[in-house]
Amino acid sequence: MSNEIPEGMVDSHTAVEMLNISHNNLRQLVWRKILIPTSKYKRKSLFNIIDVERVKALRKPYIPSA
Questions:
Q1: Most buried among 2, 9, 47, 50, by the most CB within 10 A?
Q2: Distance of CA 62 to CAs 16, 37, 47, 53, 59, Å?
């Protein structure tokens, strides 16, 4: 078995960095079934990079009211 993440997949740490969110917020996205892990790699969940990009595009930036 190879020790590399399969092509087209990202681990949870990379997903957190791509989405610019905390690990707890990533857990909320998974719990709410907005982002679904597809497999595991060294005890980390793997996500399809396309799904992470989709969530990133759907997230609206927080703009505080004046």
A1: 47
A2: 17, 26, 24, 18, 9
